[in-house]
Amino acid sequence: MYNNMSIPYVKGNITLQGFDKDRHSNYFYPFNSLVADIRGITMNEKIGIIASDIELKESIVALFEEDVKNDKIIIDLLDAEHMEMQAKILEKKGVKVVIARSGGYKYASSTVSIPVVHLKITTIDILKAMKRARKYDKQIILIIWDEIYFDYDEWKDMIHTKIILERFKERDEIEGKVEKYIDKKDNVVIVGSGIACSVARENGMDHVFINASKESIYATISYAKELINNLYEEKYKREVLKNILDGVHDAVIAIDDNGEIILYNERAKELLKKDTGEVIHKNLLDVFPKLDFIMEVLKNRMEIYNEIKFLNDFVIAANVSIIHVDGNIQGVLCSFQDITKLQKLEEKIRYKLNKKGLYAKYKFEDIIAYDPFMKATLEKSKKIGENDCTVIIYGESGTGKEMIAQSMHNISERKNAPFVGINCAAISESLLESELFGYEEGAFTGASKSGKLGLFELAHGGTLLLDEINSISRNLQAKLLRVLEEKEIMRIGSDHVIPLNVRIIAAANEELKRKVEDGSFRSDLFYRLSILEVNIPPLRERREDILPLFNYYLKELSSDTINYIINKKIEEKLIHYNWPGNVRELRNIAQRYLLFNEINLDETEIKKHENAKKNNLDKRIDLKEINKFVEEKVIDMLLKQGMTKTEIAKMLGLSRTGLWKKLNK
C-alpha cells in the first residue's frame, strides 16, 4: 500500500477513508477476501507530465513511446506565464497523477486535488549538464531553485571548473538572474531549468538545460503508475467496505489510536445527523462529544457490550471493542443501534405527557422587564438555560420562578422534550415520594393495579422543576441526591433501577445555605444543586416593571381591547406599594379593577387594600362567601348593562329558576 511506503516526492490531497490492508486486516473478516487481488482490473492510468523543456519531453517520449501514443501519458510543455493553470487543465483532461519539475511542481501542488509527483533535479543531473557546458569553454552560471540540493564545495575538486551559483526562491527572480549576465554573454554559458534556458535563448546566450536522467524519468513514471494503481485499489476497497457497512442495521464508527474517526457508515450518519465529510479524519470528541464512552474504552482498555447510552434525543445499545494488530492496540470499533422498545415506550410517555399537559408554555420573550436589574437577571438566566447543569432559582412567592424555569427549558437543547413541575410543599412527604419516583403494582395499599410512572420518568430527556425544594425532609433529600449522582431511580416496590436523563431545576423561596447551617438541609445535596444560581428580584425592587405589568394584565384579563387609563395618583400608589405578594398580587389587583370598575381604577379600592395591609388583617375568608359576593356583583353589573335575566342565566350556565334563587338569597 502506498500509504505504508516512503513517498518523498508526492504532494497533494490523498484522502483514504477505507482501511490499510496491512494495518486494519482485523477490522472486518470479509474485507480481505473481497479485495485479495484487484491489480488486474482495468482502470484509468492516465498520467499528466509538465515538461520544463523540449529536451525533457523528447526523453520521456523515447522511454514511454507507446503510452504517449495511447494517451496514457499526456505531456504539456511548461508555460512560464500560466504555470498555475497547467496542472488544472491536465486534471480536467482526466489524469490521475501529475508529474512536474521544480517550479511546475511547486505551483501544481497548490492548485489540484490529485497527487503531484516531483521529478527532482538531482546532483547527477546537474553534474551531467555542467559537463556538457564545459565544451563551451566559458564561465558556467548555474541557476537553480533554492530548494534544490546541490553542494558545490563537495564536488568542485571533481568538476575542475569554477562556476557561479545563482539560487532563486520565486519564478519572477529567474529572468533577472539570467539578464544579470547579458553584457557578458560572449563569456558565459547558462545552466539551468526550462525557464532559465528560455530566457537565455531569447537573449542570444549559450545555455544548457538540466535534463533528467533516463533512470530518474523511468523510476518517477513507474512510481506514478503504481500510485494510480494504489489509488484505484483504495477506492475499490472503500466501495466494498462501504457496501458491507451500509448493509448492516447497526451504526458503525471506528477510531484510530489517536481518536481520529476512520470509519463512519450510512446508519451512523442517519442517527448522528452528520455527513461523512464532516467527520472522517476528525477527532471523535470534537465532532461527537457525547460519544466519549468510545474514547474511554480506548483509554481504559475495557471493552463494553450492550451498554445503554443516552444521546441527545434517543437511547442506544452500544458495543465497543478494541482493534488489535500484531498485539498492538490500533483503535476501537463501536457499533450501536437505536433501541426499538425504548422508542415505543417513549411514544407512550409522550402521549401521556400531552394528555397531562406536561410541557413548558413560557419563553423569555413572554417575560416583561424594563428594570435594569431584572433585565440582567433574564440575560443571566438565558445563558444558564443554554447550559445543561442543575440550577437553583431563588425568589419570593409570586416572583415567577416557574416562568423562568420554563423559559430556561425552552431555550435549552431539551426544548422538544417534557417539562414537568411539582411544588414540593403542596404534597405530603409520603405522597411526594410516590409522585416523584412512581411505584409498581401492589407497592402499597391503594396503589394502582398497573403501577404508576413517576415524575422523574415522565421528565426523561427533559426538565424537572422541584419548586419549594427547601420544604422536603432530609430523608427525601438523601433519595434525591442519589438520583442526581447516579442518574437512575428505583420505583417504590421495585427491585431494579431505571436510567434517567433529566435536567433538574430547583426553586426555593428562602436561602438553602441558611437551611444547611441550621441542619435542615443536607450540605451535599445543596452543593450538588447549586452549580448555577439565579436570584429573581421581588416586585418592590423592580419598580419600573409595575405599571407595564399592570397594563399587561389589564389587557390579558379583559374581554375587550380597551386601553385603560390610570390616573397619576393611583400610579404613584401602585409604584410605592410594598407588594408582599409580588407579581401574583399585582395580577389580582388588576383582576379586581376589571371586575368592579368599567373604565378607571378606583382609588378607593387601592386605599382599602393598603389599609388592610397596614392593619395586618389576616382573617380566614370563607370561599363560599367570596364566590357569592362576586356572583352578585357580576349579575348586578350585567342587569345594569341591559341584559335580560334569560340572557344572564344562559351566560352563567344557569336555569332561570337557579338565577332567581341566587337573586333572592
Automatic annotation (TrEMBL):
Residues 367-595 form the Sigma-54 factor interaction domain. SUPFAM superfamilies: Homeodomain-like, P-loop containing nucleoside triphosphate hydrolases, PrpR receptor domain-like, PYP-like sensor domain (PAS domain). GO terms for molecular function: ATP binding; phosphorelay response regulator activity; sequence-specific DNA binding. Keywords: ATP-binding, DNA-binding, Nucleotide-binding, Transcription, Transcription regulation. InterPro entries: AAA+_ATPase, AAA_lid_NorR, Homeodomain-like_sf, HTH_Fis, P-loop_NTPase, PAS, PAS-like_dom_sf, PAS_fold. Gene3D superfamilies: 1.10.8.60, 3.40.50.2300, P-loop containing nucleotide triphosphate hydrolases, PAS domain, PrpR receptor domain-like. The keyword Ribosomal protein does not apply. Residues 237-285 form the PAS domain. One of its GO terms (biological process) is regulation of DNA-templated transcription. NCBIfam families: sensory_box (TIGR00229). This is Propionate catabolism operon transcriptional regulator. It comes from Marinisporobacter balticus.
